[in-house]
Amino acid sequence: MRGFTFEDIARITTTNAERIFSLGLEFPSEVIAYPIRNSLYLNITANCTNSCSFCVRFQKDILRGHKLKLQHEPGVEEIIKAIGDLPAKYKEVVFCGYGEPTTRLDDLLTIATYLKEKFNKPIRVNTNGHFYLLHDKARINELKGLIDALSISVNTSDPKQYNEICAPNFSGNVLGQIIAFTKDAKEIIPKITLTALDMPQVDLNAVKKMAKDLKVKFRRRRYNEAG
User: Fold this and answer.
1) Residue range 129-149, pLDDT digits in tens
2) Residue 119 pLDDT more than 70?
3) How far apart are CA 67 and CA 54, in angstroms?
4) Cα atoms in the Cβ-side hemisphere of radius 13 Å centred on 205
5) Helices then strands (H, E): number in the chain?
6) Mind listing the pLDDT tens digit for each residue in 102-118?
């Protein structure tokens, strides 16, 4: 029903059994490259530009059977080693994890270039959309030809509410900067999706309208699965 693979179910249930019954099973202390469904995710940083109250990283270390809380910031060579030949098995590679991947933009671009040259698979970046708050605006052009999709967590269409529920590291109209980035990104990146949690206080219809006005896709994320 959820689209999980046999491997996903095996990993999740085994991890849950260890957490409940303390069977003494051994698991990696941290995971850099991890599969979910038919995608390979890359967990390249623990640093995030938001401190969302609903974020799963404040509640647990494990998501979908993977321990994603990093003990250190892995280097590019370490990340590439963790990737190995795994991308050949999956339909796409996604920069995600428990942090904001664009905080390591230079490393992200280096790894994305490597992935394109060796595997030529679609690359998606899951992001808060704070690109213009982190980097010079001209650097958006460096994403062209490397990044095929962006999934941008906006979570609301109201700038004030965004600051309240996402607690960004930046002041002012942060949502406005996300929208500006989205407008420019859609000119060079084939697929852009705005996402929002179905929290009771959020007007999802307004977020859908915002996505429609920006001429990008919209995806609802379930509140009880905020990670």
Assistant:
1) 999 999 999 999 999 999 999
2) yes
3) 18
4) 0
5) 7, 9
6) 999 999 999 999 999 99
pTM of the model: 0.90
Question: Do 180 and 152 meet the contact criterion of CB atoms below 8 Å apart?
Answer: no
In the block, tokens 């990008």 appear at 216
pLDDT digits (tens, 9 = 90+) for 75-92: 999 999 999 999 999 999
Does 226 score more than 60 pLDDT? no
Which one, of 217, 129, 119, lies nearest residue 175 by Cα? 129
Q: Which secondary-structure segment (H or E) carries 62?
A: strand 62-63
For 199, which DSSP code? -
**Distance in Å from the first CA to the final CA of the chain:** 19
What own/partner pairs with CB < 8 Å and gap ≥ 24 does 101-106 have? 101/42, 101/44, 101/45, 101/125, 101/126, 101/127, 102/127, 102/130, 102/131, 102/134, 102/135, 103/45, 103/47, 103/48, 103/49, 103/134, 104/44, 104/45, 104/73, 105/134, 105/135, 105/139, 105/142
Q: Residue 173: what residue type?
A: N
